[in-house]
## 1
Amino acid sequence: MSVDAATVRRIAHLARIAVSAEEAQHLQGELNAILAFVEQLSEVDVSDVEPMTSVTPMQIKKRSDVVTDGEKADAVLKNAPAREDHYFVVPKVVE
Amino acid sequence: MKPVTDLTKLTISEAHEGLTKKQFTATELVDAHLSAMEKARALNAYVLETPEKARMMAKASDERLAKGEARPLEGIPIAIKDMFGTEGVRTTACSHILDGFEPPYESTVSAQLWRDGAVMLGKTNNDEFAMGSSNETSFYGPVISPWRRNGSDTKLVPGGSSGGSAAAVAAFLCAGSTGTDTGGSIRQPAAFTGIVGLKPTYGRCSRWGIVAFASSLDQAGPFARTVRDTARLTTSMAGYDLKDTTSVDVPVPDYEAAVGRSVKGMRIGIPREYRVDGMPSEIEALWEKGAQWLKDAGAELVDVSLPHTKYALPAYYIVAPAEASSNLARYDGVRYGLRVPGSDITEMYEKTRAAGFGAEVRRRIMIGTYVLSAGYYDAYYLRAQKVRTLIKRDFEQCFKNGVDAMLTPTTPSAAFGVGEKSSGDPIEMYLNDIFTVTVNMAGLPGISVPAGCDAQGLPLGLQLIGRPFDEETLFALGGVIEQAAGRFSPQMWW
């Protein structure tokens, strides 16, 4: 499989990364090189093989459903590029 | 008392002994390292030096030492890869998108090192978000290896992604350091710089507080100049953590006790699929030499087959970017780091991420987004996860047949020059990890131990791969190789 220019722009938008026309062309070549490389997986017989979901056979430990953390609004907001009181500030999202 | 300039040359065990015997103080030890770091800035191993914090921690260590209350790593100067969140200390994963980020928390692994008395010297350089095999994708520029080819001043890469951590240990700018290994990012730079590096079993160390790249593959581990030091650091870094549900609740042994343990009767697998086309004869010869050393120590060598080896790298380049595209979705210019303004929120996201991520990271996010997108998931991601099951099964089969560990080369070549592989085809760079990536795909422990030098004087490493949670066998076998091969240090030119 390979990607065309329109697909590159669509993926870039899905990934929320702005790409110029020139970059898109460059990326198309690189993505196609990687896709060609991974293409060899199609020669492996994977019928009746379970996909891996966890490398270690383990039961995930459960803990009591109680609040163990919180009341740290200042710490949470400390690194925000734009904030007001205890809110993150973003461009307007609803008209 | 030793002259202060020599203190950087000590191993962790030697330094600890010197401190407890009061031959020098933790403050003197730290000052010796800080001054070595200052002289070595041309290597670009550190992206942030933290001298004040280091001196403060050393002072606290000196107080403990005075009271005879030394902990296992008391006063030992350690460097931390910039992938580890360090409380109040800039942590960027060497990406522009995390500009100025100061975590309000400490990663579990680094916190355990401090719990055991270690002293932080600073944050080390790495490939951006640990994506790379040469430390050339860092926003802070490449790390220059302390090693040079005989009679040449060509700048070489230290390997990656933990290039700064490896270079800092090799150049005596710290006694040990931390790394993360997703596809070879500890073992490959350890091999390129002539030091020891361990990727523990998946789940052995907590991933909490470490910048996530590919969560099902990422694992933290140590670098040091000896197998014994590496073992001591592992004992401190390992352990179950409530905050990481993939960390495993099995007791942490005293790994150091495994160094020097007999390997008599152990069965060592030599996987035939690792004999790849175009592998330099020097590496092949070193591999045979390593096998002979283990045999001389009483181990038994067996030819084994891991038939799906060649599919590990292509499967990795689906699984790792897919997980990365998901993990890196959090960098949106809202909560931390860089923000580039836009006319609406989508444009703000798109401009921020275009400016904040470097070329390699953008490429991997794009690949990951594509293989997870509607209509392609089964063909790529699901198939890759099935292949991963087969890769793991290959190893399990060998272990079931009585193999205790495998011996392979760590890398298919010695270190290369800065810029040599970073311009053209991305696959050329990816092939560096051909021998290491299988271990991440199967979640196994792997160690790289320096074993010799090539004709140009550059170090080469051998890799030992073990059963899940059997790091002790790797330390025992690694100790045998170290004993036979000796230690390797670069000529100081910086």
## 2
Amino acid sequence: MDLVNNLTLGFATALTLANLLYAFAGVLIGTLIGVLPGIGPIATLAMLLPTTYALEPTSALIMLAGIYYGAQYGGSTTAILVNLPGESSSVVTCIDGYQMARRGRAGAALATAAIGSFFAGTVGTLILASLAGPMVELAFKFGPAEYFSLMIVGLIGAVVLASGSLIKAIAMILLGLLLGLVGTDVNSGVARYSFDLPELSDGINFVAVAMGVFGFAEIIANLEHTTKRQVFTDKVGKLLPTMAEFKYAVPAVLRGTTLGSVLGVLPGGGALLAAFAAYTLEKKVTRNPEIPFGKGNIRGVAAPESANNAGAQTSFIPMLTLGIPPNAVMALMVGAMTIHNIQPGPQVMTSNPTLFWGLIASMWIGNLMLVILNLPLIGIWVQLLKVPYRLLYPAILVFCCIGVYSINNNSFDVTMTAVFGVVGYLFYKLRCEPAPLILGFILGPMMEENLRRAMLLSRGDATVFFTRPLSLGLLILAAALIVIVALPQISKKREEAFHEVD
Amino acid sequence: MKIKHAKDFWSGMMFAAFGLGFAVIAQNYDMGTAARMGPAYFPTVLGGLLTLLGVIIALRGLKAEEPDSQVDKFHFTPLMLILGAVVAFGLLLRPAGLLVALTVLVIVASFGSHEFKWREIIPLTVVLTLLVLGVFIYGLSMTIPVLPAFMRD
């Protein structure tokens, strides 16, 4: 069977000593940074990306994937112990997780999150492995028109499923697309928006954008709030859930995993939406909760944690098979692949099978490591939470600056990151969610390229997007998404879903 | 006249300014035709759309009333200190080397916090310097100048 052969190849790649080591390093560092409050997976990935430059592409991607789910898991630890979401997808975990911690059940909450995540990660990895083949075959039927339409669906999906104002999110995408166009135009060789700066003719570095808008802006915003955080350090309690807790958690994990796996594949989906949806579902299906939701019900930890991990796993599907990132984290992974001279797209599976299957296998190994690593190391993470922010942020800045500098060994990128720090702070003040901007930034050049090719092939006839069935289908999907969300009753529900946790 | 939703109004203005800027600068490049798009085509369309959306957002901001819609105060001190430290690091790294650049970065950035204490920041600088030397210079053998230019051979 193909799947077995492929997975064998994958495990053979991922189980080499060097790659195991990189996966381990990724998971460990990812958790370490993810535990720190106020640094989400996007900033973590951007910050640690440079540490992987020297590695082989396969090892680099294995390590980055490890950093990603490590960061995500670290985020839940912070959510449970400090009531501060380390990242947006653990906002939901805060609600019941922190209440469990206050009742002395922090250990059980952490263990449930770890085991639920591992189970969900396993399922997600299997889905990814079995869907990859068919998806790649479908992708080979895609011409430039289909790709263009697919990117439209992806961008619209990212807006529709995100929180906050729709129209502002669309504007952020457009701004991202435009920023992505800065630099030399491949077709004509004209350096666009470079203002005669030679550094800008290569385009704006995406690490500078991500780090400035997410990393620096967050630090500055955090310095404005002087709220004290209270860490439940002394009473983590027993790790093992009681029989009763276990009985409640298992079905919640199963529901969360299913929902998360489905939502992860959708454009704009991934971990965040999965966690919100899973929490809402748990509240709907649990008729008479023994402990009310919001007061420390274990289901409120088990379901969203499983869902966000399953979603994180399956959101690799569109990125690996189509080369289209469904969310901002995957956009960063696309950027990382490009740095290593791998053009993401359906050809990766055939031209780089060891990378493709090795990465997939290493995800499962990484998830296993997370469980083994985190449960015994929780004590250390707790200590880390005691470090005051005034000592943490200079350290974060140092790593960011060295990381940005080492991309091209020039100080221009460092200055550029500072510029995007200002822009990011402005976004924060005006409440403009920056994730769609990153997605647009990565997709900008790809979109233009495919638009040009499609229009060239059709001799300037724009109806090509509507006459090719696959492309038409995708555009109808995009239109349907907008219409559905614009409907008054739905838009009210959407707001409720995101505000439920406030 | 009072702007009711200042966050939206100013976001709209920002988007419109960006959109207009991109679209106007694009006019320096070749537009091409729909079949053979020049470098100006896509940015002009996107810039136009962004300007339009920006104006709509700003207009909606004039009437829509919502709680928490005023723009919070900008805190310029941490902003300037943090980003100033970052820019200084970038500019100092090559001529003055990592040791100097990193010290400046950590100390200047730390002034951004309300609870600055020399007796915490000096040990922090030392620890971070050693960590960076260990991880990036010796561990990952990155080519970052460590000493000031005049002390290198």
